[in-house]
Design brief:
seven-stranded mixed β-sheet, 2 domains, 37% helix, globular, 13 helices
């Protein structure tokens, strides 16, 4: 587990922390995991800050769920107002869901933006699960291709193609993996061609084994694979997927909603017109709401042959949260803020890399940044121990980030989109101090 608390070290913690964790384990069981060697207790959040019981302030440079900031007043007010008015399912005609659909669909551009549809779920896992079912129904096949360390959900179906859940979480027999576009170790100009060729060969293998290719699904920032932002990769891959008879699913749960800075949706950085787009996490700024947007011809047969109903997906309160979040994103210029603050952070860390050779690579887009730590800069040897040290040393300074990648050696910096220049200064000053303390 990346950046997970080890219960075996419980005795090293203060008595109050031990008691809280023991109570948590007793009540919630062993599957729930905590972050950091010394877990963080939180009681309140505002903007980019979290606060514990003692009122100590933490800088949240990790949480993309509350993309417009913890407890944003416009989102809170919208949820409270709608909850006091009506909260019910989508089998009645309601203006809110239609108004939001009309607002969000055009931002996707391409065929979906012009004539597509949107279907609402509660979580990104549900959205990816539904997207996969639709792709399998449309193609009559069941093979799925993902990147080597991908994460797409924790339902039974999506866990079956989420290799980042670990070797004890089995992949479906109909699932195949291809390498992520590692721009640190390979020529960036060749990444799209390399990946497309691998997808073509993998699709042929699925066909020979009788499954065929239903879909290729990817997060366009390859978050769990180590954060790769090269925008020229997925165009050739989409061509290879369609040549094999499959659909291209753009998983925007991590990379959408303006996080990349230069585009509203991550797939737009690759010049794509996806068949299906999924979204979740930051969509309701903490309220569970997610969605599948897709071309009409992709869902037509599914809609004819089956039905879709989700008791809570698209309920009035969820839509109010999503609509308010989207309005804040637009009105406060948060996509542009992500671009500016992201450039500021990456530029500063690249300067630190000239002093600290354990920083092998700095990459990312907008406010999704990966910093790869290595033990040997010439051999580019992953250094998970150093990444773990930095993450936990920052936590002791009350700055929260995490780590990612197949070797757990990539610092993951993914703050709310309201991250300010003062927040950037706090993050960078403490990161420099932690690097210097090695």
């Amino acid at each position: 587990m990346v950046n997970a608390f080890d219960p075996a070290s419980l005795a090293a913690l203060a008595p109050e922390e031990q008691a809280a964790i023991e109570r948590r384990i007793r009540l919630l069981g062993p599957a729930y995991r905590l972050f950091y060697q010394t877990p963080v207790q939180v009681s309140e959040g505002r903007g980019t800050r979290l606060f514990d019981r003692q009122g100590q302030e933490y800088l949240d440079a990790y949480n993309n769920v509350v993309s417009v900031g913890h407890a944003h007043p416009r989102v809170v007010e919208a949820v409270q107002r709608q909850m006091s008015t009506l909260c019910t399912h989508t089998r009645y005609i309601q203006d809110g869901i239609l108004d939001f659909a009309e607002q969000i669909l055009p931002t996707l551009g391409g065929t979906i933006g012009a004539s597509g549809h949107i279907m609402f779920t509660c979580t990104g896992s549900e959205a990816n699960d539904l997207a996969t079912r639709i792709a399998m129904h449309k193609t009559g096949r069941r093979g799925i291709i993902v990147t080597r360390e991908a994460y797409h959900g924790n339902s039974y179906l999506t866990a079956g193609y989420s290799p980042s859940l670990g070797t004890s979480s089995p992949l479906g027999t109909w699932v195949r993996r291809v390498n992520a576009p590692d721009s640190y170790r390979h020529d960036p100009a060749e990444l799209g061609r390399r990946m497309a060729a691998e997808v073509t060969a993998t699709a042929a293998e699925l066909a020979r084994q009788g499954d065929g290719l239903a879909a290729f699904i990817a997060d366009s920032l390859f978050s769990s694979d180590g954060v790769y932002d090269n925008p020229a990769v997925l165009g050739p891959v989409a061509e290879a997927v369609r040549a094999a008879g499959g659909l291209f699913i753009a998983d925007e749960v991590q990379s959408g909603f303006g996080r990349s800075g230069d585009k509203m949706w991550g797939f737009q950085r690759h010049g794509l017109d996806p068949d299906i787009v999924t979204m979740g996490k930051p969509m309701g700024n903490g309220y569970p709401v997610a969605a599948v947007a897709l071309k009409h011809d992709v869902v037509a047969a599914f809609g004819r042959d089956t039905r879709y109903f989700n008791t809570f997906g698209g309920n009035g309160v969820a839509i109010a949260a999503a609509h308010a979040t989207f309005d804040v994103l637009r009105d406060e210029g948060l996509q542009e803020n992500a671009r500016l603050r992201g450039e500021q952070i990456r530029s500063a860390i690249q300067q630190l890399a000239s002093r600290f050779d354990k920083i092998g690579d700095v990459r990312g887009a907008g406010l999704y940044i990966g910093v790869e730590m290595v033990s040997d800069p010439e051999a580019k040897t992953p250094d998970a121990d150093e990444a773990t040290r930095i993450v936990n040393a920052l936590r002791e300074r009350r700055v929260l980030i995490s780590a990612t990648g197949p070797d757990a050696n990539v610092l993951k910096i993914r703050p709310p989109l309201v991250f300010s220049e003062a927040d950037v200064d706090w993050l960078l000053n403490d990161l420099e101090a932690v690097l210097a303390s090695a």
